[in-house]
Each structure stands twice: as C-alpha cells, then as structure tokens.
Batch of 4 targets.
Target 1
Amino acid sequence: VTFEPRAVRPGDWRFDIGAVRGSAGSVSLLFQALLLPLARAGGESRLTLIGGTHVPWSPPVHYLTEVFLPALAAAGLRASVELRRWGWYPAGGGEIGALIEPVPALHGFRAEGPEPGGRVRGLSAVSRLPRTIAERQKKGAEERLAADGLAADIAVEEDRTALGPGTLMFLAIRGRAGFSALGRRGLPAERVGAAAAADLVAWWRTGAAVDEHLADQILPFLALASTPSAYTCPTVSSHLATVAWVVGRFVPAHVELTPGPPARVAVTPAGG
C-alpha cells in the first residue's frame, strides 16, 4: 500500500452515499472520516452528507451531536452537525449538514472517572409510525433504568421527513457515553427501549469515564494534540487496539492501553 498525501482543500462539499447505487450507508461514519483532515485544512468547510442517519452497525447522528462532538469540543475541536432528514435502513435518503472550523492545534482530553452529576438524556423517536410506539419505547427505557436507581429525561419525537419507517431509542451522558437501539418488525417497542437502557446500565457499572466506542473514535484526534490525554473506558476492545496500532504507524505519539476494568488510555504526543 502506497500513501501519497496531498493538500486537503477546505470548502463546500456534498456526498450522496446512495447516488450510484441505492444505499443506506452511514453518514455518521463518513462524517467521522472527513472531520479530522478538514479540521486541519486551514479553512472552514461545510458538508452535506446523504445516506443512512440511523442504521445498524454505526453511530446514529444523535451520537455525533450528543457524545462524539462534545467530547472533541473539550479538546478544542469546533464542529457542528444538523439533522435535516432522517434516513433508516433500507431506504436511506437521510441528510445531515455539518460545519467544520479550522483548528490549528488540539489540546489533551482527560476523563478518568464518571462525570460528576452526569445527567442521562434521551430521545425516543419514530418516523412514519404511530407516536404510541415512541411512548412505549420511552416507558421500557425508564423502567429498566429505574431498576438500577437511574433516571433520564427522555423526549418523544415524531418525524414525517424520512423516506421510510423506523424507530430509535437513544440515551446519553453528554460528551461521555451514548447508547441506542433501533426498532424492527416483530420486536416490542418496550424491548427496544429496555435494550438501550441495559447497555447504559452495563457501562455505568464499570465506573469508566467514556463508553467503549468513544474510546477509539477520539483517539486519532488526541494523537495530534499538543498536550497529553488520559481517559478510562470499559475494556480494550479490538477496535481500540486496532486504532491504537494504526495511529502508531502514522503519528509519532505514544499510546498506552492498560487493561481494566476499567481500561485506561494514555496518549502522549511526540516530545510530550
């Protein structure tokens, strides 16, 4: 494999994942791939990304706005995402807009324990389906959280913009952790809500500062920071180990992974 980087050009960009072949490919994953180079491109960029906004095996757009970007904002990155149209599998067709500001240098991120007074917020949403489904998802989540002494402020939203039907249960502690479950035919709405809540409870019990997915998603950014970072997560996942390995091949930063529970990630920039 030969890699020959050239200058990254900031500007206005539009990418439609399903333009050539109909697809509900994740706009969240595409955004995460574009964010780091464009943040260092020396000028402001505006993106329009079309595809799946809430699809399996990828972070929903609400994870970007409530968890991923707030965590990076704590390290000095400036970007925002706007959900313009929901896009579910298999229809896709969702759309987000993003603004990425140039950042000359990031600084370290430190989070080695639970967020003091961390508040659980949530969203139970449906597209082109009865509102009662969203209300039942909310109830299922609240009951599962209450069983472990937790509570959440959960909003209910009905959407009519999507090309097809879908449901989402999303729970988060801002800038630290997020958990979601998608509805599907034959799965009771209460179980959708309870599934997202069960994942949050499992993370909460570890005492980790961030969730398993945020741990690997922010690592490439922190490897380019000017000061050290340290944070805890539930475990050293295969994704985290892989990202640490790849970062080591491109950036002269030292990444140390200490098994837990909770696991600890320490990032020391070159010369730090």
Target 2
Amino acid sequence: MPTPTQWPTVHSITVGIVLATVLFVPATLCAADRTEKPWPQFLGPDRNGISSETHLIDKFETTGPKVVWRVRGGLGMSGIALEGRRAITLVERDGKQTALALDAGTGQELWNRPVTDEYENSMGSGPRATPTIAGEAIYVYTGEGVLAGLDQASGKIHWQHNVVKDFGGTVADYGMASSPLAVDGLVIVIPGAPGASVVAYHAETGKLAWQTGDDAAGYSSPTLLTIGGQRQIVAFTGKAAIGLEPATGKVLWRYSFTTDFNCNTATPIAVGDDVFISSGENHGCALLKLKKSSGGFDVSEAWTSFGVKSVMRNEWQTSILLDGYLYGMDNVGGAGPVTNLNCVNAKTGVRVWQQAKFGKGNLIAADGKLYIVTIKGELVIVRANPAKFEELSRAKVLQTTRQAPALLGGRLYLRDTQEIVCVDIRAGR
C-alpha cells in the first residue's frame, strides 16, 4: 500500500522547507498512519479485542469526548475495519447491503459499492459481519450469506458467492454473522451448511479451497490461534468449538458445545495454550486444554462453569484477556434478563468481581483500560483492574449499538444504525 505522504530527501533542502513540509501534511492524513498496527478486521489486529496503543485518555471532558467527525451510516450491525487512511464497514442503504469506504481522518465518503439486496430480520435488519481488509482487498459477508472480494481502493467487486445457498444451507435465525478471516491467501467463513460447516476460498480468485463439517452455523467469527506451537483456525459453530488446519481444513480437535438456537456467538480466545469459549442465556463457559496427539489434539477441560451460576455468559460479546484475567459481559437469561460486567481469573475460573446490571454492551481494551460501548449508545471507560470495578468516565455518543469500537491512532470509530462517528481519545491532545 502506498504511503500517504512521500517525504523529500534532506540533501540540499533547508530546515525551513522541511518544517513547512511537516506543517502542510494533507488534512486527510489521519492519526491512523502513525500507529504500529492497523485494525483490519473484527476485534482488531489479533482478533482478540486488544490494542497495543498507549497514552489514551482516562476521563472525558465535561462536554464529553471530542468528536472528530460524524457522518451518515446505514442499517446494520457490522463493525468498522481500518487500515491506512480508509475506514470500511457494511451498511444497508436504498434497499442494498453496501460496502462503504470513508476517509478515516475526515469521514469523507471515498466510495460505496452495493453487494446484494437488503436483508430483513425481526432482530434488526442489515448486514451483521465486519469486513476484513487484507492487502489491497476487502472481504465482506452479508446477512443472507453472500461472501465477496472487493478492491480496497475502488470498491470494485472481483468475485462473490452466495455461500449458504451454494452449499444447500439455511440462513441462521438472526442472520449470518461470521466475519471473514483472511489467512495464508485464503478467506474463511462459517456458513453452517451440510458438508460445509466451515469453508475456505482462495482470496485472489474466489475459488473454493476446502470445506469441512456438518454443524449448523452459530454467530461466531473464526479466528487464527497458535496452540501448542501449531497455527490453527478455531471456529465456534452452532454445535461445537473445532480446530482446523488452515491449508486443508483438516479437523485437529472438536469440543461439543450445544446451546439453544445455536447461539454460540463470541469468538474463541487463547489463554496460553488453552482456549476459552462462552455463550449467553445461562449456558456458561469453558477453558479447554489441548494436548498434541497423533494427527491432532486431545481435548480436556481445564475448568467449566455452566448454568445460572456461571462466572461468564457472553451473549454476543467476546471477553477480553488481560494479564491473566477475563473481562466480559455476563448475560443472565430467563425472566427479566440482565447483563453484568465480570472479571474472572482465567487460570482458575474464579470470578473476582462483578458489576451487577452494568447493561448490554461491547468492549475492547487498550492502555490498561476497557473502552465499552453500551446498547444505549454510551461510551464508557473502565480501568482493567482485577482488584475492583473502577469506572473512569461515561458519555452518550450514539443512539444504540451492538458492535465494539475500532481503535487506530488514538481514535475510536463507532457506529449505530444511523451514523458513523470518530472520537479522539488521545491523552494530552
């Protein structure tokens, strides 16, 4: 990808000219170009919701967070992917599910590309999955299960497949929500079709690379983890957590995890060489211990916590692992469901604190803090402190949202069903 600013050579250039060059960097150049890692996919660079950025604010000003820009968005629950100067998301506009590219610094629309017709669902219409940026390409997955590869610069569609229909599957009750995973020249999604629970396509051509399994789809996104020194795709289908060999789709291990309505939604995360999975509605969670065996891995339970007294029931949010502790949304099902914010010792499975009735939301972590967006549209900063719950600041930013923020260059990118918002959270700005 070309760099946004080409610096002149220093030879024979006066100091004054060099200073002028710095002062007149184009306005469209955003803070994203100065960060170590982009946020190119669902849940960030490592698909675990954690950013390495530092020097971020602890508290909002009395007037609230500094809004850099606020622009029209569209229906849908897709998150935002960021790389270079582009912010990419999926929205539903004018009867079409549309890939949308914005200038990350200004919010100016760079291009929009209709991918397929609108998607209607009683739980909220529009696309669910977050786009994935890989090199010069973008991969999107629509509400009914159309996977498409687009050019990042122009939005031109290079290839697309109705993955669910092609394999004779059924669209999940609440829509297809598997954010594409780009690995080793492949793009992986979870259509949940017979003989094609998980599928991989060649990223450049869109040709099928492999297919595996018979599980129905849940709503989780596949992730790439290294367990026991071996890279593997870990997918959370509607019926199980499974580990797959990236190049072939060979099943390395499987752990049955059945929930009502196939509601496995959170993304699996690595805890050392173990894997943490969780589902809401009083189902619970498990830490899986994997041990290499002939041709794959043996699976056992490091610990489990199920039922109405579970320490963590992630409904549609992925927990964050920081310094050996899991921070996450604990959804208590049944009559009058509530959502708590819990902190759990990842090694032992013991809950160390709970902020009861915190409310539904989604979260990421950076600079020793949790940045949480609530379903009421509030942005909340919480210290990642295993000793106690410590809320630092809270402000209303959006109407209502389910997606976690995206973070790049000291700016949070948020969206609801109407707007896309960029907020500056740099300390000392």
Target 3
Amino acid sequence: MTRVHIICEGQTEEMFIADVLAPRLLQHGVYLIPSLIGKPGHKGGNVKFERILTDVRARLGDSSAWCSTFFDFYGLPPDFPGKVEAGKKNQIADKAACINTALQQQLTAKLGDQAMHRFIPYVQMYEFEGLLFSAPAQLALACDNSRLQLPLQAIREQFPTPEDINNNQHSAPSKRIMQLYPGYDKPLHGAIATLETGLDLIRRECRLFDQWLTQISALAP
C-alpha cells in the first residue's frame, strides 16, 4: 500500500479527498491521507509558502510516504511562487504548469532533492468550484434548486472546460454560483455535488485534475 499525504486548503477539499477520491484510489493500492494546511484544529486557508513549507517538511518526514497538495489558484496570494508569472500565460495548462513548477522548485531549494522526489505539486485551476461545473444539473440538485440548472449550464458552455472558468473576484466559479444562489455553502453543497456527479465524469471534464490523479494512481505498488 502506498500512502500519500494530501495538504488541503480547506474543509471542502479535505472532505472531497476523503469521501470521493480516497475510496476509489484505495481499490488500487493508494491510501490518501488528507489534512488541512496549518496546525491541527485550524480551519485551513491562508495558503502562504511558509506554511506550505512547514507542512510539506513534516509530511515528507514520513520517509515511506508521498505528499501532494490541493490548493485553489484563485485564492493564492500574489507572492505565491509562480503566481505572477502564471497570470501572464494564456493557456490554462501553461498557467498550471508554471505555478506547479515554481512551487516544486522553491520547496526543493529548501528541502533538497532527496525528499522532494516524493512530492507532487497540484494547484486546482481555478478553484474547487470549477470541478462542480462538470455537471451543472447535479450542482443544481445539490443546491435543491432545479431552476439553477439552465443558468449554470449556460456558464459552463461559455468555456472549453470547467477548469477554464474565469479567475477574478466577480467571475471565479464560486462567485458565479453565489450570484445565482446566495445561499451556496461550499462544504455542504460542494460535497453533495461531487458525490452526485461522480469521479469519472469530473475526470472526463477536467483534464488537469485528471492528470494529477493519474500521477497519484501511478504510485500504486
């Protein structure tokens, strides 16, 4: 069994790892261990490089395990490794590669190559809610409001993939959902929507997310 620590930005991401990803990967011999960034008991968030460094160092101290991350690009601070450079890229895949590479390089500079060969950086483009647009009907069902399906589907159809949905304070995926449904509760509705949608559909719709899971799955003994 291969163990993989996943450092998560918030409770929703942690629940998604535990309830949706972990059971599937366990079938293939990969045991995911999600945890919130920061000290035990904290709510997560505040994804600063210094906090990531502390957490990654601790997880890689478990010398027989791997470590990865699950952070939203949208909420990263401007001084996050690669954030400014990624913002200058036009293609979503180039943005993701830029920020993941920068994070890997800066952590390697602090922790060394020997430990960091067991690290897989992952930043969700542009945020967790992008995954929910893989199935607008299921997102509407999770919110218990069928009238949301058509406007959510209209948003989805404006973009090549859910991961391309815009990245700013007005048009990020979560902002678009809250404009339509002010009662949106990320931990509650996000968790229900991913369970209703299913992992296979999310992977088909979200190529970058799928590539990350493929990397994790390849760690199976």
Target 4
Amino acid sequence: MSAADVQIMRCSIVEDEVQMTTSELCHATNTEAEYVIAWVYEGILSPSGSSPDDWRFSGNSLLRAKKALTLSRDLGINTPGVALALDLLDELSKLKI
C-alpha cells in the first residue's frame, strides 16, 4: 500500500449514554428547532424531559434525526410521512437480523 492509497477519515462515535439538549441536537444535525420539535410531537424522536428546554436526546436520536432530515429535505417528505418511512425502515432492519 502506498501513501497515495491511504485515506484519512474523521468520525465521531456517539454512544447511547450521551445526552444532548435540543440546541445541541440542532447543531449536530444542522437543522432548526422547529424540525426537532415537530419530530418529537410526531413520535419520530423520543427524548427524556417534559418540554423542549428540558429534552435530552440519546446518540440513537442523533442518527434518527439525520435520517429524518434526509427524508424531509432531500426527498420532500412531510413529517407524518417521515415518521411512517422511519418506522418501515426500522421494521425492515429487524427482519434482516
């Protein structure tokens, strides 16, 4: 392997124990709080806490929010449609195991 074949990748491992605030999740996904709030009320994300100021999101929520953002922005799917698509993707994932 030569030096030209080496690629440097940067990534972050987000464990499920990590707890992010609404603001931190918005920053990590590069989205607006309105999206995150709508996703919570639609059941796409399940934070702990009782209000947007108190919500805490797990690492799994970060992955789910990124998928929701892709479905919403790139494919133009509305929030209920995103919820349905993610539920179906979860079911497919379970069937493959």
